[in-house]
């Protein structure tokens, strides 16, 4: 009888401990996550800015639980949200959100801003956006705020143990080099020289992020910029991708991987991981039906040819089944397409992500943490 009572007491203690652990906020359960970049990963920073590069009005967000536009350029979740799911964490908040304070800082932060590029003159037509240099200054500011909450030593551990995602480059072509015929940058540089120039600038950005403590950085390449509905509307008669823009992406991406390999040799480890988002996109652009899509040329929300003209608004054409479309608006994937892309982050071969996929990274980092 005494033995049964003792066992029951221990069971109560264990259940209580489990309940307490379950009650801990997500910030204590998963590594921090930081996001830098453009509209593919912006989750609402531009909501707080006076700029035309915003997604805070319907029908954006139509497939979120409360059908509310959040600032994500999607019908629902974007890539950072889905990566957070795989990390077992709540979505990171936009850095400019007033809700990002106290314990929420431990989850990480999203510094991304729609319209930006590697270069500061990319996206000038959008006026007030957070260029990458300022995003990095915000990362420094974030660390000051984090130190005030958890102290210097713990703040360093949070950043060193974090995962970073950075998505840049597409706008440097679409909204800079090829923005208009004979653009200033296209007169200044041949395409090969321009690619070398922006990659040299990008290398400095990544060095700075590493110097600020980041030790696992996912760096996405340029996607199929010649195949987005906006470009098809301007340049395609039959839905075929724009050859010149595709040529730029195909030239840029291998050189990005080479640059990341050089950086890893420089810092002495696999810090920077190259993600070939174009290859992931290409799979379902070339054969949408094989991946459960009806179309990879027409946007779900828009107007004009391929629904690729103008902005996605309440007066736009809107598809009924977002899951059957690769593109949500003139430039951005649907949530379902984002999920397929992130799946390649998780378990893709070296053709998709190099030098290792995210599942391998998470496993290796967990083992290293246990050893320490």
UniProtKB/TrEMBL annotation:
Q: Which GO terms describe its biological process?
A: lipid catabolic process
Which Pfam families does this chain map to?
A: Lipase_GDSL
- GO molecular function terms noted in the UniProt entry: hydrolase activity, acting on ester bonds
Tell me which InterPro entries the record gives: GDSL, GDSL_Est/Lipase, SGNH_hydro_sf, SGNH_plant_lipase-like
User: Does this entry carry the keyword Signal?
Assistant: yes
CDD domains named in the record: SGNH_plant_lipase_like
Signal peptide range equals 1-22
Q: Does the keyword Lipid metabolism apply?
A: yes
- Domain of life from the UniProt record: Eukaryota
Against Gene3D superfamilies, the record matches this protein to: SGNH hydrolase
Q: Record's PANTHER family?
A: GDSL LIPASE/ACYLHYDROLASE FAMILY PROTEIN (AFU_ORTHOLOGUE AFUA_4G14700) (PTHR45648), OS02G0816200 PROTEIN (PTHR45648:SF2)
User: What name goes with this protein?
Assistant: SGNH hydrolase-type esterase domain-containing protein
Species of provenance: Oryza meridionalis
């Amino acid at each position: 009888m005494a033995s049964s009572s003792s066992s029951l007491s221990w069971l109560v203690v264990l259940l209580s401990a489990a309940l307490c652990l379950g009650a801990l906020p997500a910030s204590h359960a998963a590594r921090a996550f930081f996001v830098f970049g453009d509209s593919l990963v912006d989750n609402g920073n531009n909501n707080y800015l006076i700029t035309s590069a915003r997604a805070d009005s319907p029908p954006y967000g139509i497939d979120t639980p409360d059908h509310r536009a959040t600032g994500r350029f999607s019908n629902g979740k974007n890539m950072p949200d889905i990566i957070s799911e795989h990390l077992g964490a709540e979505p990171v908040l936009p850095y400019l959100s007033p809700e990002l304070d106290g314990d929420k800082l431990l989850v990480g932060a999203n510094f991304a801003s729609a319209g930006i590029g590697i270069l500061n003159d990319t996206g000038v037509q959008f006026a007030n956006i957070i260029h990458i240099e300022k995003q990095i200054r915000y990362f420094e500011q974030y660390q000051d705020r984090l130190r005030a909450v958890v102290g210097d030593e713990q703040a360093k551990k949070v950043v060193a143990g974090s995962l970073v995602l950075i998505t840049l480059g597409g706008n440097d072509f679409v909204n800079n080099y090829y923005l208009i015929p004979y653009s200033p940058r296209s007169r200044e540089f041949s395409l090969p020289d321009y690619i070398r120039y922006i990659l040299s600038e990008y290398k400095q950005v990544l060095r700075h992020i590493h110097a600020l403590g980041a030790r696992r950085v996912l760096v996405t390449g340029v996607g199929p910029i010649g195949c987005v509905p906006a470009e098809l509307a301007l340049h395609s008669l039959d839905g075929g991708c724009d050859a010149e823009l595709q040529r730029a992406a195909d030239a840029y991406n291998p050189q990005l991987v080479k640059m990341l390999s050089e950086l890893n040799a420089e810092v002495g480890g696999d810090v920077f991981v190259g993600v070939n988002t174009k290859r992931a996109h290409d799979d379902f652009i070339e054969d949408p039906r094989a991946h459960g899509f009806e179309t990879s040329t027409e946007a779900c929300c828009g107007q004009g040819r391929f629904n690729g003209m103008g902005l996605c608004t309440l007066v736009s054409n809107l598809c009924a089944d977002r899951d059957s479309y690769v593109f949500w608006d003139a430039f951005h994937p649907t949530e379902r397409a984002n999920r397929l892309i992130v799946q390649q982050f998780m378990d893709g071969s070296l053709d998709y992500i190099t030098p290792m996929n995210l599942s391998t990274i998470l496993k290796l980092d967990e083992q290293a943490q246990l050893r320490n």
